[in-house]
Amino acid sequence: MLLFTVVIGSAHYYVWRRAVRVTTRPGRARRIGTAAIAGLFVLMLAGLVVETPVLSWPGYIWLACVFYLSVVFGVLEIPRLVLNRTRRRVPAAVGAGPADPPDPADPDRRLFIARSLAVAGGVATAGIVGYGATQALGDPRVKTIPVHLTKLDRRLSGYRIAVVSDIHLGPLLGRAHTERIVRMINERQPDLVAIVGDLVDGTVEQLGEAAAPLRDLVSTHGAYFVTGNHEYYSGFEPWLAELDRLGVHPLRNERVRVERAGASFELAGVNDVTGASFQDGPDFARALDGRDPANPVVLLAHQPVQAHEAAKHGVDLQLSGHTHGGQMFPFHLAVGLQQPVRSGLDVVDGVQVYTTNGAGFWGPPVRVGAPPDISLVELHHNFASR
For 45, 81, 231, 264, which has the most beta carbons within 10 A of its beta carbon? Predict the structure, then answer.
């Protein structure tokens, strides 16, 4: 929290300089602008700490605004420097000799440039955040992802797993969000539902009612869940018991056999890596050892980075979330420093890994370049092995 406060405090200082300090002269307007920026900073911190809708909505929206204001003002630094260094030529008087030499940009001109760029930055930020909010708060996109597995029996071709992650029930997303996700999944009539972590940001007492619609999930072979990092911040043991009560079966370093038409595959789940700090870490050996190696394995693991360990245990396909697809550009660039797959289907150490963008959001209710999704992963026999 201290590190976050320092970083975001620096962003506020930069925004204050570009939106207030250089656009006003000493006096009342500057004092009002300074007070406004300071007040928004306090509001944002209060929204993060208190976590009530009254404070969280404006606090998180402002967090998105100050982030994009910093980015936009940073981009505008180049034209600002160019314009400030451009000297205006003063035309020569009639009948005089050559034009007077260039004179430096005067304070009024610098003030005009600063105000113009501040307005442009504010308009751009409002557009970006507004667009991002419509993406984050709108219906998740439903994506169909075909995955070909060499070991899969042809009788299981077309088997559909509804993958949803990062629902993030909390102060900004409640029961209506869960109901929408359940409705959208049920409309697709999947064979199995996989919730791959980060369901909640709060305790069962706070959010049990918001999660209750999960009991209405309908699929041929049921719904399964693995922990994400946020479950460990929210009281994972009560949540696992609550999900089990709702008919969503936690896979805690274990596996089950899924059968259809005389054919089968193994569905396994491992705890999130954050669980290691809570004496509940991932145990791949427990989840995967001792199985029939001829049977394909689909692993539920919250973070894509867990694929490196999954590869050592012969996993065929890993289903993950956690990244939010980057959620707010340009955070997309940072995700790759930690995770091997930001979004979509890729191969990590020989394991196919599918990473969903998630159906919710964390922090600001804004998504830019990473719309929320629910994924229907269709399993198919590998054509190359026919």
Answer: 231
Cβ-proximal residues to 120 (8 Å cutoff; 6+ apart), any chain: 76
- For 15-73, how does the pLDDT look when each residue is reduced to its tens digit (9 = 90+)? 999 999 999 999 999 999 999 999 999 999 998 888 788 999 999 999 999 999 999 99
Using a CB cutoff of 8 Å and minimum separation of 24, what contacts does 274-279 make?
274/227, 274/228, 274/229, 274/232, 275/227, 275/232, 275/236, 277/232, 278/232, 278/236
Provide the CATH topology of domain 141-385: Purple Acid Phosphatase; chain A, domain 2 (3.60.21)
Length of the chain in residues, anyone? Answer: 386
- Cβ contact 371:137 at 8 Å: no
> Is pLDDT of 103 > 90?
no
Q: Which residues neighbour 98 within 8 Å (Cβ) at sequence distance 6 or greater?
A: 92
Q: How confident is the model at residue 342 (pLDDT cuts 50, 70, 90)?
A: very high
Residue 256: alpha-carbon gap to chain centroid = 29
Residue entry with tokens 């970083």: 7
Token pair recorded at residue 349:
């150490």
Q: Which two tokens stand for residue 20?
A: 């207030």
Q: Which residue has the tokens 């069962």?
A: 204
Structural domain spans, the chain: 2-89+103-135, 141-385
Buried b (16+ CB within 10 A) or exposed e, 139-154: ebeebebebbbebbbe
Neighbour count for residue 212 (Cβ, 10 Å)? 15
